[in-house]
Amino acid sequence: MSAPASRNHSEHAALFSQLGERSAAPTIARLMAMALETPGMLSLAAGFTDNATLPVDFVDDAWRAMRANAAAANNEFFQYGTNQGRPALRRMLAERIVRADRLETEPDALEPCVFMTNGSQQALYLAMQVLCDPGDVVLVDRPSYFVFLEMLRGLGIEARSLPVDANHRIDAPALGRLLDALAAQGKRVKAVYFVSYFCNPSARSLDEAEKNSIATTLAARGLFVPVIEDAAYRELYFEKEWPARSVFALPAWEAFPKLYTATLTKPFATGLKVGYGICASEDWRKKMLHVKGHHDFGSANFNQAVLEHAIATGNYEKQLARLRPAYHAKMRALHDALAEAGLRGRGWKWDEPSGGLYLWLEAPRGLDTGMESAFCRACVEAGVLYVPGDLCFGDAPDRKFIRLSFGVLGAPDLREAARRFASVAARF
Ligand SMILES: Cc1ncc(COP(=O)(O)O)c(C=O)c1O
């Protein structure tokens, strides 16, 4: 008997929790359904990675090595792992951040602070679950990662944007005024979150002065709230790494509880879904691990073992060396096709990114690009899909932005998608 699609008539309605009642279908699922339902649709919406460069060979290498050692290892990689994750993998990740941030800490000392998760998405969820109650406020970058914003809504948490100036840089005086206004309204700021390297969606990176200005503005008000720095795209630069160090290395953040989240999905294989958090605040980390124990008591041990092998052998670095020029070329294909189609002349603006998976376009004045807009519908009819930028704002959504992902499609499809997009833009 096939499972019924919905409750049958004799079945009583379940009574849901407040969280269950608040839950709503993720917008990305709607966008993906649209892409699948429309034959020939070219999707610039989903933040998926490039199928052609996925590391089949390096996963094969890892599997062969694991298999050769299987008897000696008592097939341990097919067994449950620990809640916190594989120690050797955690140590290598500690070593990577020590190097990237030029930390004085020894990797061995940092290893206990690293915990493996089911994608970095789970680390973000754990962080919010243990810190916030419904009605609490979390400060987010403007624009910010829309899946995180939807998660906040699902948990009943209020997102408030970190103010930015006309150049999209953090506006510390405006942040000070926002914090004072929130205090006057009796609102409780519980945490601050930002995507600081090749941001999803804006492709912008924060410099150290911007990160520091957030810390000093909070500290001046005694608000030593936890900070979550999401570094999902840090390793996905095209030519040069972004020079700013993370909050772990910046003295302005020293007195704040800090969580750094990053992932091995985007830089290696999204399907392995292995991410991690690094949190030196023992009480916060322990609570996240307790809740992780409730979620799953450990992320997939086999996938972690594959990544452990890939990092230890240098294959992970080789994969990055393969991906960086590939994404650079794809970005150029989309960027150049949009520019050559005369979009800038029609008042569209965007910066050329130096890493990540996205172009962030600002539409000409007065053009609404929202999900229900005539422009969005016309794009779907023309066979091209984008993420409406208004989804990416914690508050006061701006309806003139568009996120285009060059992660999935190959260069010819990117050029065709740009042509379709530009042909719609020419009509508005
Ligand atoms: C900014 C950002 N953070 C976190 C994630 C979560 O990725 P994963 O769970 O694959 O590590 C994503 C995925 O798109 C992202 O764009």
Quick structural gist:
The chain has 428 residues and is of the alpha/beta class. Helix content is 40%, strand content 12%. It folds into 2 domains: 18-54 and 324-427, Alpha-Beta Complex (Aspartate Aminotransferase, domain 1); 59-316, Type I PLP-dependent aspartate aminotransferase-like (Major domain) (Aspartate Aminotransferase, domain 2, 3-Layer(aba) Sandwich).
**Uncertain residue segments:** none
Quick one: biggest sheet?
A: 7 strands, mixed
User: Averaged pLDDT, please?
Assistant: 95
Report the count of strand segments: 12
Ligands bound here?
A: pyridoxal-5'-phosphate
CATH topology group of the largest domain = Aspartate Aminotransferase, domain 2
Structural class, from helix and strand content? alpha/beta
Strand order of the biggest β-sheet: 2-8-7-6-5-3-4
| Overall CATH architecture of the largest domain | 3-Layer(aba) Sandwich
What is the count of structural domains? 2
- Kindly report the name of the CATH homologous superfamily of the largest domain: Type I PLP-dependent aspartate aminotransferase-like (Major domain)
Envelope shape: globular
Task: Tell me the span between the first and last alpha carbons.
Answer: 51 Å
Please count the helical segments. Answer: 14
Helix-residue proportion: 40-55%
User: Compute the gyration radius: what is it?
Assistant: 22 Å
Order of helical and strand elements:
HHEHHHEHEHEHEHEEEHHHEHEEEH
Q: What would CATH call the class of the largest domain?
A: Alpha Beta
Strand percentage, roughly?
Answer: 5-15%
